[in-house]
Structure formats: structure tokens, C-alpha cells
Amino acid sequence: MSVEKDNKKRLFIGLITGTCVLLCAFLALLWYVPYAGLDSFGAWASWSWGLFIFALIVLVGWGYVGLLTNVVLQRTFPFSQKARGLSVKLFLPLMTILGRVFGLSKRKIRGSFIKVNNELVLSEVGRFDPEKIMILTPHCLQASRCDMRLTYDIDNCKRCGLCTIKGLLELRDKYGVHFHVATGGTIARRLVVQNRPRMIIAIACERDLASGIQDTYPLPVYGVLNERPNGPCLDTQVSLIDVENALRRFIKEDKLPEDVDKNVALTPLTGL
Fold first, then answer.
1. Of 45, 173, 181, 199, which one's alpha carbon is 20 to 30 angstroms from that of 190?
2. What strand order describes the sheet that includes 221-225?
3. Rounded distance between C-alpha atoms, residue 152 and residue 182, angstroms
């Protein structure tokens, strides 16, 4: 498992490096191509345009160095708190395009992005009151044979134990966080607006997690991949231990339940 995690990190580093180089080269080209034509407006126009493009290149390079420092050395680079945003909004789409050129699957690219996002969240985000944390899951965690409507009221669940919804409800009751099931991105965004959490623990596949992280930025999202023994979108599962470890990591220690042994070390959260 550790080898797989290292491979995801190396994949991300390789793609982010290639993306940054290509992006800086494109910005440099934007400066060079119209440079001669700007002379007609005076030397100041060419210099102003050049300085503007140079500032963009510095910004991209700074974000890249900040990401690399955080990912490789597990340290925060000065003024790099926005590095996650640069990765979410700019690098991921370009990484996907670059990865496809080299024959990499979107699933691998998204998996590496989610892992690095989780590590950035772990290094930057503190702890919150339980009511400020929301667990958000897709409806495919619900047993396909179940006809209960959980999207609008999760407490319609009969807790029969046929799926992991029962276990997630028990975690909600134990820790006092919000828990909702969404059937798609539109409903997920509406739930976020309605509940106004400060932290989301999201359970989904690579595609939905990557898009959800993008949609909700700058709200921190810690992703937990679901398990798909029956294929995608059908009777999926999730490790309740992983979810509980995430809850213990992000809830304020003085707000944890009394029966939680705070001296027991958490399973390391490395993100996937």
C-alpha cells in the first residue's frame, strides 16, 4: 500500500512539473509574440507587457515550489497557503490534459491529485467544532435493494445493516457532526450552502472527489475513496475506520466524546 501511495505522489510531482514548465513556456510565448508590435505604442508598452507576463510566471513558479515543498518535505513554503487553490483551479485541468497525452488514465491522475490535496489539507487545516464538520457521501453507498429516500432526510434509514449508511449514522451520532447523502453535484452544493460547514469529509470515487474538491474550494475537503466490489455506482462501501480517524483528526480534542481514548494513536492519515 505504501508503494502505491508513493507512486501516486511521484505521478503528481511529475505531472505538476511538466504542467508548470509548459505553462511558463506558454506565458513566455505570450510575451514574445506581440513584443515587436507593441513598440508602436512606445518602449513602455513592451516593458509593461513583459513585466506583466514575468509576474505571472513568478506566480506560477511560486505556487509550484510551494506545492513541491509541501508534498516532498511536508513543510509549508512562505506565502504558499494558496498553493492548494492553484493546484485545484489551474494545475488539475492542465495535468489531466498532459497526462492524457502520455496515455495516463484520468483515474490515476485524479487519484494522485486527491492524495496530494489530502496531505495539503492535513498540513494546513486545524480542528473544528463537530457541528462545523460535514460527512458527505454519494447515494451509491445505500443498498440498491433499499427503497428508502435518504437524500432529503438521512434519518429515514432503518439502520438494517445492509450497507455502511448505518455505520456512518452511528459515527454522526457519536461525534455530533452533520451527515448527508447527495445524488449529484447540484444537491451536494446545495447541502454545503445550507449547512455552511468549515470542513467536509467527502466519500466518493476519484471522479466525484476531484470535481467536488474543485467545486467547494476554498472550503477544505478531505477525500476518502469508496470501495467498489460490485463496480462503480452500485452498492459501494467505505472503511468506517478511515472515516472515524478523519473525524478524530479534525474535531477539537475537547469536543471529542468521552469514550474516545485520546491516548490511542490515530492510524496515520496520508490521504488514500
1. 173
2. 178-182, 133-138, 199-204, 221-225
3. 9
Q: Give dist(CA 40, CA 24) in Å, integer.
A: 26
CA 45 to chain centre: 41
Q: Which of 175, 184, 76, 154 shows the shortest CA–CA distance to 120?
A: 76
CA distance 156 to 139: 13
3-state SS assignment for residue 180? strand
| Closest residue by Cα to residue 240 from 183, 157, 190, 179 | 179
Counting every residue written for the chain, the total comes to 272
Which of 14, 240, 202 minimizes the C-alpha distance to 114?
202
145's grid cell: 435493494
DSSP summary character for residue 144: T
234 grid coordinates: 452500485
Mean pLDDT in order along the chain per 10 residues (272 residues): 63 80 79 59 66 78 72 60 64 78 84 85 89 95 90 90 94 96 87 92 92 87 92 91 93 88 54 50
The continuous run of DSSP H or E covering 200 comes out as strand 199-204
